[in-house]
Amino acid sequence: NGMYMDEKNIGTxxxxxxxxxxxxxxxxxxxxxxxxxxxxxxxxxxxxxxxxNIIGTLNLTSDWTNKHPHTxxxxxxxxxxxxxxxxxxxxxxxxKETYNYVGSVIxxxxxxxxxxxxxxxxxxxxxxxxxxxxxxQGDLIGKRIExxxxxxxxxxxxxxxxxxxx
Length: 166
Prior knowledge:
The chain is 43% helix and 18% strand. The protein is built from five helices and five strands, in the order H-H-E-E-E-H-E-E-H-H. Strand 4 and strand 5 form a beta hairpin. The strands form two sheets. A three-stranded antiparallel beta sheet has the order 1-2-3, with helices on both faces. A two-stranded antiparallel ribbon has the order 4-5. By secondary structure, the chain is α+β, with helices and mostly antiparallel strands.
């Protein structure tokens, strides 16, 4: 269960300042408003979502006698790790969505299509290509394109050379 740690509810504290001022902050001992928190040092930093808006804070609290200048740096490191994971997750979702869209488009084109990565490994085969080649899709995925198109390396090098001229 969470708490409302804003200044309106509990007075001056690191989380409230981090949220209000959108910056990392450390609040120690008598800097706290409420007496029960005056024995503590709190280091807090805002966590931003992928849209840049604040979605929460990360706070590290300890006895004020354990105050250390690197504690706030540790909190910042944790926030950066959380924000990086949020970004990675978002990018992964976008890539999955794009892959599904491309797969749908490829399967609705009136041509047989085989897609390969830059190393020549087959990563997708549309339904018409499967039908035309009389193959099972699973038999090709991950295999080298040379297994069905002899001379692929010559074709690839031709495109690569043309691309470098442009």
